[in-house]
Amino acid sequence: MLRMVLADDDFIVRETLREVIPWEEYGITIVGEAEHGQQAFDLCSELAPDILFTDIKMPFMDGLEVAMNLKEAGSKTKIIIISGIQDFNYAKTALEINAEGYILKPIKINDIREVITKVVSNIDMERNMHHKIEQLKQQLNGNSRLMKEKFLRDLLLGVTFNGQEIRDKLDYFQLPLQADTCLMVAVMQMDNYLKQIENKKEAEKQLMSFSIQNITDEIFRNYDAGIVHCLNENEFVLIFNEKSQHDDKHIQICEEMIQSLFKYLKISVSIGTGNQVGSIDRVYASYKNAVHAVQHKFYMGLRSIIRIEDITNRHAKRELDSMDYTNLFEAENRLIGFIMLGDTNGGLQLLDTIFNGFLNSDVESIRGFCMELISGTYRKVYEMGEDLERILPNRNLVLFNILKAEHIQEMKLLMTSIFVEAANYYTQKYNQKHMDLVNKIKAIIKRQYTQNLSLSEIADEVFMSVTYICSVFKRETGETINEYLNQVRMEEAGRLLKTTKMKIWEIAEGLGYDNHNYFSTAFKKYTGLQPQQYRNEHK
């Protein structure tokens, strides 16, 4: 049984909640009641209940204070807030303390049931997580699912089966799908996959994959939506049955999966959905479209759901139609250009476009393009006098890996990794260059802030245009040059007001202000006080 504490300064409310709701049906027993916030906090500290059901406004300590104190104490108690209409702004704060839900007064039984059902479900999921992960560890070396996984893989890759054979296999493997009903495939991939698996051992990567499948399996079972199949480490195939597609229910399921994986595993995923097909022997077509859709997460951002029907031909092809890639010479030059500019995003999008265009090409043509791109990049880096080994180390190993790559996706992953590494070098180089410029500008200001310093004078001193220095300074520091100049002057003015007896007009002139009234206005805007008030308060 789950244990719960009721907290409300109104005895009638507590009695009503205790008697009206059949808590036993939800597996909940009330282990304590509190008539004020301090008592609620003490009970929770002593009893460590699973749930605290509390009003916001109570004597001694309000419900939000109780919740925040419990959170700071490391309590795992789930908080449900009861809020009056006039307290609605308080309820927003509940989001910041991870309250599981809030209920507005006047209290409605259906609202309580809905929130309690959600909280109990979340508790059950969290309690099961550790146990299920331990079970998953024991299953890693098992092979009982190999035949079923091979059957699903063959279906998704378009291997031909006759109708009766498919029905027999669905029945034998106890797969919750019908052979002759409408199905839809979605493909889920982890965002920033290389970063997700960075420094992870193989056992950790496998456990992460199994954990993702465990959560998605549970959500699918809750909705009776179909099946989840892990095709690769970073490719989870979701096959939706006909019922789950009504009223876009499958989109709601995808949203829940994205949110749950981020909440429980801190893993960001995106999902692409394919088209609806009329029978299971056509499921490979929906799968291909889903793969195509999920590749557009580059354009849509993290934790996206991309429908195949939302991708126009122009968007899908990107710039492919306007460029001649027969010999891929122009593509090579553009990719090298992206590397030299440190434009990682632009290069990744172009690589994605190129490899999409390779889907019907022979492997050797793709291999030749990749090797030529590596060689061309080496030539360009050498011509610029850069350190080859620092930007693109182990050239022979890179070429060897290209030669041994057995499929397009492996080659694409390899090329992406090489491109990102090279582009990141130039990104860091330009970032350092920009920071050097910012530091020069700051040094000029600190040296000449007592003069009537203009942007043109600063630009001339660093041999750059005014527009360029303003853009770089704002991007790197988050403030304008004039804002920084004003900050330096105001800090010095404050120091002089506190430590000297200089007159205010003397300080203004000494800091480069022609008009001491303007200086006083600027100082008040910066500190909230007139100069004389500031001096008086800091005597």
Explain the overall architecture:
- It is a single chain.
- By secondary structure, this protein is α/β, with parallel strands linked by helices.
- 60% of the residues lie in helices and 11% in strands.
- It has helices at residues 11-20, 37-47, 63-72, 88-96, 109-139, 146-157, 163-172, 193-196, 202-223, 249-265, 283-294, 297-300, 313-317, 329-341, 344-357, 363-383, 388-391, 395-404, 408-448, 455-462, 466-477, 481-499, 504-510, 516-527, 531-537; strands at 2-7, 28-34, 51-55, 78-83, 101-104, 183-190, 226-232, 235-240, 269-277, 305-307.
- The strands form 2 sheets. The protein has a 5-stranded parallel β-sheet with strand order 2-1-3-4-5, with helices on both faces. A 5-stranded mixed β-sheet has the order 7-8-6-9-10, with helices on both faces.
- Strand 3, helix 3 (63-72) and strand 4 (78-83) form a beta-alpha-beta unit.
- Helix 9 (202-223) runs antiparallel to helix 10 (249-265) and helix 14 (329-341) runs parallel beside helix 19 (408-448).
- The protein is flat.
- The chain starts with a strand and ends with a helix.
- Mean pLDDT is 84; it is low at 312-326.
State the secondary-structure class: alpha/beta
Low-confidence parts lasting 5 or more residues at pLDDT below 50? 312-326
CATH architecture verdict of the largest domain: 2-Layer Sandwich
CATH superfamily of the largest domain: Reverse transcriptase/Diguanylate cyclase domain
Domains counted in the coordinates: how many?
3
Task: Report the helical percentage.
Answer: 55-70%
Query: What is the oligomeric state here?
Result: single chain
Q: Report the total helices.
A: 25
> What gap, in angstroms, lies between the N and C termini?
65 Å
Beta strand %: 5-15%
CATH fold assignment of the largest domain: Alpha-Beta Plaits
Note the overall shape.
Answer: flat
Output the radius of gyration.
32 Å
Number of strands: 10
Q: What is the mean pLDDT?
A: 84
